[in-house]
Design goal:
The chain is α+β, with helices and mostly antiparallel strands. It is about 50% helix and about 15% strand. The chain is built from 23 helices and 22 strands. A six-stranded mixed beta barrel has the order 3-4-9-6-8-7. A six-stranded mixed beta barrel has the order 14-15-20-17-19-18. α2 packs across α11, α8 packs parallel to α11 and α20 crosses α23. It is elongated, with a radius of gyration of 34 Å.
Length: about 800
């Protein structure tokens, strides 16, 4: 122990003698280790840490799919739930659930509430406990019981001021009374990743019973529910999938579904992670490469310092110190540097996580759970130790290979002509620089592909004009809007009032606004088209008002938009998009053709509009149909207004007009369309920005590494350079000689980096849009950029070499 303490104290003194070098090394390691810790904290929260429910590995969701209809994940129906419940052999518990947005009234201002109608088993499966009152009861799964409500602790505190007497009191949701039966303990959370719905939600606030009537088994077309299950002990997801496949085949025959219909059992952890897994692994791989580059750079810096300590090592060896003793001392110094880099890295990681939350990429689930946990601290400590050992190997290897006689005879000058300018004689230094160049090129190419993909995606036209459009959601959920006529009258009235506001150029409403995450699709029949047996045509279904298309500037291709005459008393009409028209009437005019849900109520096509990117710029949606608001009025609608003034005061004026018509209506989600477009690209922007930052740091480290090696070679070769100059070498000859050595290293690094990038970028295929993983422009531009930076890093030492005075050098020798 005394020897270890002696080594530690000596290491501290040695690092303190060269504060600048120590700070440079610690800063390099801090960025490399900190980036790894930050990304690992995300990986830990999403991929490694279990969900906060009892035995989460046994929890799963059941989804429908029909790839032949373009449906890869769909919600089941109550009838299908009952079939699964009665026929499965894999599930210990099951629960049916349906999320809804409700309006809480009876307060000064109506409040939007995200509610979940569900059966009593769900809260049990998820380990919920009551802070006040009780949970849902099994008898509430059947009709006939008074309507109860279970509040989350968060909404109890926010909306009810933590009222300790809340249990037993009545609240009004969508005009219907509910008795508060309980409040959940703090910390219980059920969010959109665990319980996806057609209407994007954040965190569920209220849990309501979902009683199943006697005819629930016949409700097979209402596919708008979640099914959550707990597997029996010892049953795996693949085993449950085999079981559900048999049930799906029977449902396919019974309901005459298309031949591709099936069901998926998706583990809850996998569902929450979703498509984020691949992006996280790419980022984790990238920061690992950056850390390796930092290690190579630090190893080169320590080799430079080791060259100046050769006499010290030689004297210690001459006095009887074995190579093990020398190696232990040097490893102590490098591990100390690694630990210091790790401590500084934790600060970098904290700042990085703050930046991640500030950027709010929107595709990272459980963002609030991401933190520097004990696991992350252990990871950082382990990485610091491994890093210290890794970059300490090169200096230790050089030290134990010191030639005792040569070093002692050199009089402390450390071999002024140690290999001259021939970099190949410095195998270890050259290999480290090549490694840096190779790894940095791989990270640069990955970043280049993501940046090009993001630029391509930004250039995709969304099918409408986003500038100057203010959007908001309007929830008319009061019971008085149960029928079509009051709903139609309400929205007609608010549109009329908003249209007269100063600064409003046009306005309209739509049931599903593009780029909001809302979905709405269903089957429809087309005149003259007979689908294959067991199949139906799936289309996007949207309800829109007369002025919606003009407000969004969705182009009219043929026919007309809706008009004020398209009322409930007039023949039913529909507008389709250009993709729909091209599919069924590529050579004829679709105007006047018919669609229908009910053969007795045909819908006449009166217009064809441009295709809209409904679910994202990178996604091609289904063919789309629009129905007039006056003939098919919705309750919850998106209101859009094209403005000619500042949106902030205008949004307040619009809200006042809506509440002047009905103060019970909730107005929420007020945002500009430009903001919605910006947020829809958050995932791609986040990945490309983060990887670009890593690539910039990798490029800087590679340049510093190459500069350090070439500076070292020039310093060690001043005698050789002086002799050449004395013999008539011109400055250009010296520059070419030095630059050629750097370019040799660069050439090898680029060749190795291109090969590595071609292999590793294949895992990025799902993250790219409109760009191949072997994109020629990226694979050409990135090496060129690296070559320019490497040339600059080599040219500076080369210019310094031309200033060597041969008289001074020869006199010193």
């Amino acid at each position: 122990m005394h020897t270890w303490l002696q080594d530690f104290r000596y290491a501290v003194r040695m690092l303190g003698k060269n504060v600048v070098l120590t700070l440079v090394i610690v800063a390099s390691l801090a960025i490399g280790i900190g980036a790894n810790s930050a990304i690992f904290s995300v990986v830990d929260a999403l991929l490694l840490r279990p969900l906060p429910y009892p035995q989460p590995e046994r929890l799963a969701n059941v989804w429908l799919h029909s790839p032949g209809l373009g449906i890869f994940r769909d919600w089941p129906s109550p009838g299908q739930y009952i079939d699964i419940q009665s026929e499965n052999h894999s599930f210990e518990q099951m629960a049916l659930a349906q999320s809804r947005t409700l309006t809480l009234t009876g307060r000064e201002q109506p409040e939007r509430i995200d509610a979940l109608r569900t059966q009593s088993t769900l809260l049990q499966m998820l380990g919920a406990k009551a802070l006040l009152g009780r949970l849902l009861l099994p008898e509430e799964d059947r009709p006939g019981k008074p309507a109860a409500a279970i509040l989350t602790e968060r909404v109890w505190r926010r909306l009810f001021n933590s009222d300790p007497e809340i249990v037993g009191k009545s609240i009004t949701l969508d005009g219907n009374p509910y008795v508060v039966a309980g409040v959940l303990q703090r910390g219980f959370m059920l969010n959109a990743e665990v319980m996806p719905s057609e209407e994007p939600m954040d965190k569920l606030d209220v849990f309501l019973p979902l009683p199943l009537a006697a005819d629930a088994a016949q409700k097979r077309g209402d596919e708008n529910y979640n099914i959550v299950v707990r597997l029996k002990p010892g049953v795996s997801i693949p085993q449950a999938q085999a079981d559900i496949d048999v049930i799906a085949s029977r449902i396919r025959e019974k309901d005459k579904r298309d031949s591709t219909f099936g069901m998926d059992v998706v583990g809850l952890q996998e569902q929450v992670v979703g498509d984020v897994r691949r992006a996280l692994l790419v980022l984790l791989g990238s920061v690992t490469l950056v850390l390796l580059i930092a290690c190579a750079n630090v190893a080169n810096l320590l080799l430079t310092r080791a060259a100046g300590r050769e006499k010290e090592v030689a004297i210690r060896t001459a006095l009887g110190a074995g190579w093990q003793r020398i190696a232990r001392q040097l490893f102590t110094e490098s591990i100390l540097l690694g630990v210091l880099g790790g401590v500084a890295g934790l600060l970098v990681a904290r700042v990085s996580l703050y930046v991640v939350r500030a950027m709010n990429p929107g595709n990272i689930p459980r963002l609030e759970d991401i933190a520097i946990s004990g696991t992350v601290l252990a990871f950082t400590f382990g990485v610091s130790l491994v890093t210290g050992i890794l970059f300490g190997v090169a200096p230790v290897w050089r030290a134990i290979k010191v030639d005792l006689n040569t070093s002692l005879k050199a009089g402390g000058r450390s071999g002024q002509s140690d290999g001259g300018l021939q970099v190949r004689r410095h195998h270890l230094r050259g290999l480290l620089v090549i490694s840096e160049l190779t790894l940095s090129l791989m990270v640069l190419i990955g970043a280049g592909l993501l940046v090009r993909s993001f630029v391509r995606l930004q250039s995709v036209p969304p099918g409408f004009r986003t500038q100057g459009v203010l959007t908001m959601q309007v929830a008319a959920n009061d019971p008085k809007y149960k029928d079509d006529k009051p709903r139609a009258n309400f929205y007609r009235e608010i549109e009329s009032r908003i249209a007269h506001l100063p600064g409003v150029a046009s306005e309209g409403v739509v049931s599903v606004l593009p780029l909001t995450g809302s979905v709405g699709w269903g089957g429809i029949n087309v005149e003259g088209y007979t689908p294959p047996p067991g199949q139906e045509l799936q289309v996007d279904l949207r309800t829109a008002s007369t002025e919606y298309f003009r407000t969004m500037e969705i182009p009219l291709i043929k026919g007309r938009f809706f008009s004020e005459h398209d009322t409930a008393e007039m023949p039913t009409v529909v507008v389709i998009d250009e993709k729909f028209a091209q599919r069924f009437w590529p050579d004829t005019d679709p105007i006047g053709k018919h669609l229908w849900f009910d053969p007795k109520k045909p819908l006449t096509i009166v217009g064809v509009v441009g295709v809209v990117k409904q679910y994202g710029l990178e996604t091609d949606g289904k063919i789309a149909t629009y129905f007039p608001q006056q003939q098919n009025p919705g309750r919850d609608m998106f209101l859009v207004a094209r403005t000619s003034s500042d949106a902030a005061p205008l949004s307040a004026a619009i809200t006042r007009e809506i509440h002047s018509v009905d103060p019970t209506v909730v107005v929420y989600g007020i945002r500009t369309m430009q903001d919605r477009l910006y947020d829809s690209l958050a995932r791609q922007r986040f990945a490309s920005t983060l990887l670009s930052a890593f690539a910039a740091f990798a490029l800087l480290l590679a340049a510093v590494g190459l500069y350090g090696v070439m500076s070292y070679l020039v310093t060690q070769s001043t005698r050789d350079i002086g002799v050449r100059v004395a013999l008539g070498a011109r400055p250009g000859d010296i520059i070419r000689m030095v630059v050629r050595q750097g370019m040799e290293l660069l050439a090898v690094g680029i060749l190795a980096g291109l090969a590595g990038a071609a292999a590793l970028t294949r895992v990025m295929a799902s993250l790219l849009f409109g760009v191949s993983v072997t994109d020629a422009a990226t694979f050409a531009a990135v090496p060129a950029l690296l070559a320019v930076v490497a040339f600059a890093a080599t040219a500076i030492p080369a210019l310094r070499a031309t200033r060597v005075d041969p008289m001074v050098v020869l006199r010193d020798e």
